[in-house]
Design a protein that fits this description.
CATH class of the largest domain in chain A: Alpha Beta
Order of helices and strands of chain A: EHEHHEHEHHHHEEEHEHEHHHHEE
Structural class of chain A: alpha/beta
Number of domains of chain A: 2
CATH architecture of the largest domain in chain A: 3-Layer(aba) Sandwich
Oligomer: homodimer
CATH topology of the largest domain in chain A: Peroxisomal Thiolase, Chain A, domain 1
Helix content of chain A: 25-40%
């Protein structure tokens, strides 16, 4: 397998974007990535997206994007694994370059969630869970995560307040990210007062829906280098899966697929958790941030909130997470999120993050979760 | 890139299958392929599907299937390119083995079309076309194909009757395929009398909706060999795209992407159209069969119907198509079709097709079309 590098990155602001269609958002991110790379060549396109058929009445996104950005003829396909679709599309793109089949591959994650034509957004998001065994009983996606959080609090003796630092850190970092959905700081008082969504998850435990697109142009390292900035390399890429339904897991509060996926990634890169400088975790809900930190080896089991309470997840802490706002502060356009994470990790490794820059960032971990831990896609990025 | 072979094939009957869910259909085909291969090892799963979110309220099909068939942990993802999703999933699976990333890869195409929960099936299928520029005007997918057929008849002077042999051949062959949707012969009289759907396309020009799944287990050739039967190899795999909207094409009655894709495939295999023994074409509508024959080099432009009228597309003709019934006779479960085509081509190359066996079949072409010619996925299979 050949080495793979990121030639360019691009993203759109995350908003309720009523004025732009799927293809306009995806195109904007794609052109930004090509511009950043100073390279317009695209041999193949992989699009990460979950909801387009239901939300915009549009399947066939790969070819739609190839057509829209003037790359007619280029191979194009959509990749879907619920909320980890972006990570999965990136992984397919990496495989396409690493195999030697293509030289320049564009990966775009895109989602429109505010302009839903079909079922309401809660019903659409529930398609990430098991339709036959979970959703049939009326459970929503946030309710599944609420069950996990309640159980985790019971098992490990945490109070709701103990999860506040995850959301406060996310909002604090998002303020400095011009693309982020939220630019409002969050206080403990504000966290406590937020409306309940599905007990114990309140509005400030949950990431917001939004519209947006992010893109990376992948290529061989020698083509990615640009004078005056570090070149970001893909050091590892690994996916693992677990049962789709949460109730089928022997141990629901342990992300087994995350552990399996990250262990494979650490082995590929020849490193361990102690080497990672920042971690773009899948903090769709505050409980998921805690579980991810544990599964990836940054905290003992049940001790994820301790890291947060000790301030170790901030940009100056031992393992900064959500450095650009994370899913909670930057926003969670489901099928696009995995690409946003990698775009932001690349920004950190290039030293472009200003107020929330992690000092001497050399190795970044990103982890994208589909469903309630059913699909886990992990990447490790490094600088040459 | 390493050579890739088909270790096993599997499929379900194509029916209105109210009694089986998506995962039951997909699992049935997957187990059949593993049984046929006498190999249960699965390192990664690629699922081709278009409509599951809209039709079954279920996204996340890759992981759902891994879970269902007892391959928890294995990498899994869904690949979508509208009606060519099956072909695209197969192509990703081939890339995964050819690259050396995985040794045993399961590719499953699955679709449920009769049990639609969301929009009606016509609206769901229209998501394959351009939502912003085509569907917004109220055009359905069959109407787009009707426009192409009308234009083609005008340009080349064909009458509606001239397309009958495509459907008659498809039905005649389907009778001998136990999995096929239809087992009724079609006569010219029956073709003429069929109800109009979207002029000039009548019910006998159009492939039926149905539920079903097909699967192939891909691996390295040395692992695929079994005593007493020929080993089927993947000799070529290529995708090309065109504009999503038909009206954007300079020449709507020429499948430019099919030509581009098949030329790449011929080059990979080092052969030409004269070497192909059978062609599983994407005859979603009779016009598409004609256009495919022309784009792939079997007929001069505008002369596709001539081949059919001369009997050259039957199992004893110069270029047999729809040898197991094709989309018209076997059925067109959209996202699964591309995998059915390859399963059937493998059956031909193994000599398992009885009444519709193509004599001395050594090289088979399959071509899967997404949208009205927007995405074209071509594979060439051969025997060792």
């Amino acid at each position: 397998m050949n080495p793979v590098a990121i030639a360019g990155i691009g993203q759109t602001p995350l908003r309720e974007n009523w004025g732009k269609s799927l293809k306009e958002l995806a195109g904007e991110a794609a052109f930004a990535a090509m511009y950043d790379a100073a390279d317009e060549r695209v041999d193949a396109i992989f699009v990460g997206n979950m909801l387009s058929g239901m939300s915009s009445g549009q399947a066939h996104l790969g070819t739609m994007l190839a057509d829209w950005i003037g790359k007619r003829g280029a191979e194009a396909v959509k990749v879907e694994s619920a909320c980890s679709s972006g990570g999965s599309a990136l992984r397919m793109g990496i495989l396409a370059v690493a195999s030697g089949e293509f030289e320049n591959v564009l990966v775009v994650g895109v989602e429109k969630m505010t302009e839903v034509k079909g079922p309401d957004i809660t019903a659409a998001l529930a398609t990430a869970a098991d339709a036959d065994w979970e959703v049939v009983h009326g459970v929503s996606f946030v309710a599944l995560n609420a069950l996990l959080m309640r159980r985790y609090m019971h098992e490990h003796g945490w109070q709701h307040d103990d999860f506040a630092p995850f959301s406060i850190n996310a909002h604090a970092n998002a303020i400095h990210n011009p693309f982020a959905r939220f630019h409002q700081p969050l206080t403990l008082e504000g966290y406590r007062k937020a409306p309940m969504v599905s007990s114990p998850i309140n509005l400030m435990d949950a990431s917001p829906t939004c519209d947006g697109a992010a893109a990376v142009l992948l290529t061989r390292p020698e083509r990615a280098r640009k004078p005056g900035r570090p070149t970001v390399r893909i050091l590892a890429s690994a996916t693992a899966t677990d049962t789709l339904a949460v109730h089928s897991r022997k141990d629901p509060t342990w992300l087994r697929a995350a552990e399996q996926s990250v262990k494979a990634a650490y082995a590929q890169a020849g490193i361990g958790p102690e080497d990672i400088d920042l971690f773009e975790a899948h903090d769709a809900f505050s409980i998921m941030a805690a579980l991810s930190l544990e599964a990836c080896g940054f905290a003992e089991r049940g001790q994820g909130p301790r890291l947060a309470l000790d301030g170790e997840i901030t940009p100056r802490g031992r393992i900064p997470i959500a450095t650009r706002g994370g899913l909670k502060g930057r926003g969670h356009p489901v099928g696009a999120t995995g690409v946003y994470q990698v775009v932001e990790a690349a920004q950190q490794l290039r030293g472009e993050c200003g107020e929330t820059q992690v000092e001497n960032a050399r190795l970044a971990l990103t982890q994208n979760i589909g469903g309630s831990g059913a699909t886990i896609v992990t990447h490790i990025l490094g600088v040459e």
